[in-house]
Write a structure and sequence with these properties.
mainly alpha, 72% helix
Length: 204
């Protein structure tokens, strides 16, 4: 009745309502720190600017946080679990895609390193010396990207593990419906296989 913007809402309108009524309303329902999640979503979704893949992954992760927090209050007639499942599916697809790309890159890097090891060392020219610092920066950025992907895998494994253990433990009370036990178990198996692929790629 007193909402800042009346429905029907766009995503931008919803986020504005969250920000406007956060202290008076939402602060009593979900953790206060999630206001930073709302701010992040508003910043990237309401400016009309295009976003890159890493930002999309971040937004999906933040959206999952928000939906999960509200699930402790209600499942909102089944709408919330459905929304969470869709967001989770998108996040999983992006993570799997990134894993495949990084496994390929790791394999290529390993092959390059073998070739470099077999190449005799020659005195560096002045131009090569100038290129070395930028090469090291690029390598460092690549390492950060790989670490980010591994972190994403770990977070997703944690999510599936929580879902599995919640369903296996009858003493655990869950308010909202999660994805099926079979789906969570299969997802966990796929992620473990992907992690093994990465490990083999690194060891090569």
């Amino acid at each position: 009745q007193i909402v800042y913007l009346k429905p029907p809402w766009t995503v931008a309108n919803l986020l504005k309502c969250y920000r406007k009524h956060w202290v008076a309303v939402f602060d009593y329902v979900v953790p206060r720190k999630l206001l930073s999640t709302v701010e992040c979503l508003h910043k990237h979704l309401c400016t009309g600017k295009p976003v890159d893949d890493s930002t999309v992954r971040l937004l999906l992760q933040e959206s999952k946080k928000l939906l999960h927090a509200f699930s402790s209050r209600s499942d909102y007639k089944g709408v919330l679990p459905q929304a969470y499942a869709e967001v989770n599916k998108l996040h999983h697809m992006l993570t799997q895609q990134d894993l495949s790309e990084d496994i390929m890159v790791l394999s290529e890097n390993a092959a390059c390193e073998k070739m470099e090891a077999m190449t005799p060392t020659l005195p560096n020219s002045e131009e090569e010396k100038k290129l070395q610092p930028s090469f090291h920066v690029t390598q460092e950025n690549r390492h950060q990207e790989i670490w980010s992907v591994l972190e994403g895998v770990w977070n997703t494994i944690n999510l599936y593990s929580i879902e599995i253990f919640q369903k296996l433990d009858p003493s655990t009370v869950t308010v909202t419906a999660k994805s099926s036990l079979e789906e969570a178990f299969l997802g966990l198996q796929k992620l473990l296989a992907a992690v093994n692929d990465i490990r083999e790629g690194i060891s090569r």
